[in-house]
Amino acid sequence: MAVRDPRDVAAFTDFADTHAGHLFRTAYLVVGDHQLAEDLVQEALVKTYVAWPRIRDHGKATSYARKAVVNTAISWRRRRSFHERPQQALPETPAVDPVEGVGLRDDLWHELASLTPRQRAAVVLRYYEDLSESRTAEVMGCSVGTVKSQVSAGLTRLRARADADVFAAEAEGRTVTP
User: Fold this and answer.
1) What is the pLDDT of residues 105-136, one digit of tens each?
2) Same-domain status, 18 and 49
3) For the stretch 51-88, what's the b/e string if a residue is b when 16 or more beta carbons lie within 10 angstroms of its beta carbon?
């Protein structure tokens, strides 16, 4: 590996310190697991560090790192071993949380996790990161049309599952507040 200019190392260190939290939030929303998100950010920062001399405008390094987060997450999810989780004991059935907001948030996380990796990344980048369709396409490395179709398919799937949950709750005599 070539010797790095100390100014590049300092600039990258400042970049990493400044943007690691934001990258972690994006990574967490994409993978849904705290430890995997940390690993994902670390991997993205390593890729950004390697590419740092080629990034002419360091203002665009955030986009590069965000794209590395999304692409690496999608790559990881494609691996068969990604979905294997060791357990010491079988999990108990969780008790119903009295706070509706917590239950709703958990349900949303579960539904978001059921999306395909590309749908999940598109929905997170569009609606959590509030990126435009063109910026989302740039981060995901695809066309704007692909972003539109992935977001549409993801939202359709989320809405269908939410409607099914409402109908099931009504059939059981429970009330569901939107």
Assistant:
1) 777 788 888 899 999 999 999 988 889 999 99
2) yes
3) ebeebeeeeebeebbbbbbbbbbbebbeeeeeeeeeee
